């Protein structure tokens, strides 16, 4: 079983409660889930800290996501809890500050990871906030017994910094999706202001969740 596991929290230091900020009348985290609904998966789960559960529950339900609450700082353990609870074999890892994640790129990298039976897969040279990671559940369990605090907070660094242990697939993204200088994530007020403008411009695009469409519109605006 393949599952999208989306991690999110409310207590961001640079932009508090950014997950609840509106993008065209819906919370930002809803827009992230809305895009991820275009990525093939058997299951979709929002994984949040216990103190965010009540705020996120109705939003997850509206988006068609299940929800799981776990440790705030030990995000790796939060993922492992979700994997055990739902008997997941492969994880598409996404984060709640990326409302412009490329659904087509996410679908493609996960298909490549599954074909290669990779422990970890992600495209290089995507815009910041445009990508996801595809990870085997067995690899996450393995690092769960070894990773220290930094790796537990950020989940995947232990995997891609140990290529002698894990089978990695980290290709350059197809040219149509490449743009390392473009910033699509929402981490600051400036990011959020940009996201509002970009989302407004994308509203009427039929493929607004596709990477090349996002890049085209972003390049016109900024």
Report on this structure.
This protein has nine helices and nine strands. The chain has one domain (2-221): Spore Coat Polysaccharide Biosynthesis Protein SpsA, Chain A (Alpha-Beta Complex), CATH 3.90.550.10. The protein is an alpha/beta fold. The chain is globular. The protein has helices at 28-36, 53-63, 75-86, 103-116, 137-144, 149-154, 157-160, 189-202, 211-221; strands spanning 2-7, 22-23, 26-27, 43-49, 66-70, 90-95, 120-121, 133-136, 168-169. Helices cover 40% and strands 16% of the residues. The strands form two sheets. The protein has a seven-stranded mixed β-sheet with strand order 5-4-1-6-8-7-9, with helices on both faces. The protein has a two-stranded antiparallel ribbon with strand order 2-3. The mean pLDDT is 95. Helix 1 (28-36) packs across helix 2 and helix 8 (189-202) crosses helix 9.
List the helices and strands and how they pair.
Elements: E1 2-7, E2 22-23, E3 26-27, H1 28-36, E4 43-49, H2 53-63, E5 66-70, H3 75-86, E6 90-95, H4 103-116, E7 120-121, E8 133-136, H5 137-144, H6 149-154, H7 157-160, E9 168-169, H8 189-202, H9 211-221
Parallel strand pairs: 1-4, 1-6, 4-5, 7-9
Antiparallel strand pairs: 2-3, 6-8, 7-8
Helix pairs in contact: 1-2, 3-5, 8-9
């Amino acid at each position: 079983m393949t599952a999208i596991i989306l991690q999110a929290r409310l207590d961001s230091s640079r932009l508090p409660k950014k997950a609840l900020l509106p993008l065209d009348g819906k919370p930002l985290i809803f827009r992230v889930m809305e895009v991820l609904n275009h990525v093939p998966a058997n299951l979709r789960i929002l994984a949040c800290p216990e103190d965010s559960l009540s705020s996120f529950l109705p939003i997850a339900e509206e988006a068609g996501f299940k929800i799981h609450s776990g440790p705030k700082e030990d995000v790796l353990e939060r993922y492992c809890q979700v994997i055990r609870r739902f008997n997941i074999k492969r994880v598409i890892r996404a984060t709640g500050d990326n409302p412009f994640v490329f659904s087509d790129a996410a679908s493609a990298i996960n298909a490549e990871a599954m074909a290669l039976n990779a422990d970890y897969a992600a495209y290089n040279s995507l815009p910041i906030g445009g990508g996801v990671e595809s990870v085997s559940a067995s690899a996450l369990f393995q690092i769960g017994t070894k990773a220290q605090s930094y790796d537990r907070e950020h989940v995947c660094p232990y995997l891609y910094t140990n290529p002698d242990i894990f089978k990695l697939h980290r290709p350059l993204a197809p040219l149509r999706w490449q743009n390392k200088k473009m910033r699509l994530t929402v981490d600051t007020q400036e990011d959020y202001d940009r996201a509002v403008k970009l989302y407004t411009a994308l509203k009427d695009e039929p493929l607004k969740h596709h990477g090349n469409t996002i890049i085209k519109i972003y390049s016109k605006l900024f």
